[in-house]
Amino acid sequence: VTTTAAPLDLLADQLDGELALPGTDRYAELAMPWNVSVPVAPAAVVAATSARDVAVAVRAATAAGLRVAVQATGHGALATGGDVLLVVTRGLDECVVHPEGWARVGAGVKWQRVLDACLPHGLAPLSGSSLDVGVVGYTTGGGLGPMARTYGLASDAVRAFEVVTGDGVLRRVTPDVEPDLFWALRGGKGSVGIVTAVEIDLFRVADPYAGALYFDGSDTGTVLHAWRTWAATLPESVTTSLAVLQLPPMPGVPPVLAGRMTVAVRFLHVGDAETGAALLAPMRAAAPVLLDGVGVLPLAAIDMVHSDPVDPMPSYERGFLLRELPAEAADAFVAAAGPGSSSSLIVLELRHLGGAFARGGTHPSAFCHRDQQFALLAVGIGVPPLVDAAQASAAAVTDALAPWCDGKTMPNFTAGPSAYDAPTLARLIAVAEHYDPHHVLTDGAARLGRA
Ligand SMILES: Cc1cc2nc3c(=O)[nH]c(=O)nc-3n(C[C@H](O)[C@H](O)[C@H](O)COP(=O)(O)OP(=O)(O)OC[C@H]3O[C@@H](n4cnc5c(N)ncnc54)[C@H](O)[C@@H]3O)c2cc1C
pLDDT tens digits for 280-321? Predict the structure, then answer.
């Protein structure tokens, strides 16, 4: 840090936003990620308020021999140390909805704000399970939301990016202008640049028939077997996931779900309530329902489908994809994480893929593995000593499901090259070599394995 102090001090005068140095309250506040278990301790933080700030920061870091990381909310925080300049994008806060069906959104904006601005126009964005997640981090990683089988990934609905590439240049990127970057930024996250704004398609959606059914944990096997055969019959109007939950008693958790194992079947049908209820009927009959939270759901409450935690928490996550879920795999899942297992996972979720997710959008992208049928995510407590138990529980599930898993992952749930097939990884590295010749971006190291 000492060797870089001079260039970073000079940087403060060049910014529209501010530079925060270690030891200050502002630094602590800006660096603190939503996932509080991840150590984020950079050499300094640039709180950007303009795209120009991001370009200035990338160039200053390069001159100082530092790498650059980016953080909006810290939902997907990566550990950073004193060799990194962290760009915090919260101040890039533009959010303009065009009633004809698209929006321009700054890199610091969360989905809640976009949704709120869309609803008066009868429009909805392709947000994720939680509206507290950042639009840009989510979208550059693909973005698998509660309407994914109907409308596809958020990254398939991008029209344009503005991005500061690793060479410190601000560029506008569309399918026709800088097409390599347009391809790479949809799936490649921050491995080729720091996005400053994104332009996205919006969708004209009426309030869906949606929510979650909750069952007792002792019915995990029965519900899972019913769910996997039922999911295979569903039309693309339905997106569903199943989660084994072990929620602690705390504010926001209904008492009936707290302090025990339960199973949630999340459901969203884009269409009328009568059809939705008919589609859901087999799951309502699968086992005694503890809590039935499915009905016509105002789009404003779309995050109730998953009911993800909003307050910052120390979380350990492990995600991977499954090519199929036959009966033997469901049995293995229940043995590893169901009743009677010693699983310490708070959430173990299986998302049903296919539909528009599998088909992809108009323009090819760096998001891979669309042939996989299920996405699995294990979440536990991320602080010692509990993190050891979370890791062991996630490993038990990984081992149990190994016969149906090819080691593939999604960029939003794992920061590593397993999110890409070999040709995609090679092309991403080539794009990164061109636009980040000095290997300045930490995402290039984490996600693409660039030294
Ligand atoms: C509670 C919760 C619910 C979630 N639900 C879903 C879901 O339903 N579907 C899904 O697909 N994912 C989901 N995720 C994962 C989430 O999409 C990723 O963690 C995403 O990276 C979060 O983006 P962020 O900007 O909020 O987080 P940050 O931690 O601020 O950023 C994480 C990463 O995103 C990238 N990034 C952020 N900003 C930029 C930028 N300006 N330019 C380039 N890259 C950038 C970088 O790689 C960065 O390291 C969820 C995560 C949590 C914790």
Answer: 999 999 999 999 999 999 999 999 999 999 899 999 999 999
Buried b (16+ CB within 10 A) or exposed e, 151-164: bbbbbbbbebbbbb
Pocket-testing residue among 412, 440, 443, ligand 1, by greatest number of atoms within 8 A of Cβ: 412
pLDDT at 2 over 50: no
pLDDT in tens, 56-92: 999 999 999 999 999 999 999 999 999 999 999 999 9
Spell out which residues line ligand 1, taking CB within 6 angstroms: 33, 70-78, 89, 107, 128-130, 133-134, 136-138, 140-145, 189-190, 194-195, 308, 412, 443
Distances (CA, A) of 222 to 84, 228, 280, 322, 339: 49, 10, 16, 20, 12
| Amino acid type, 383 | V
Q: Is the pLDDT of residue 6 over 60?
A: no
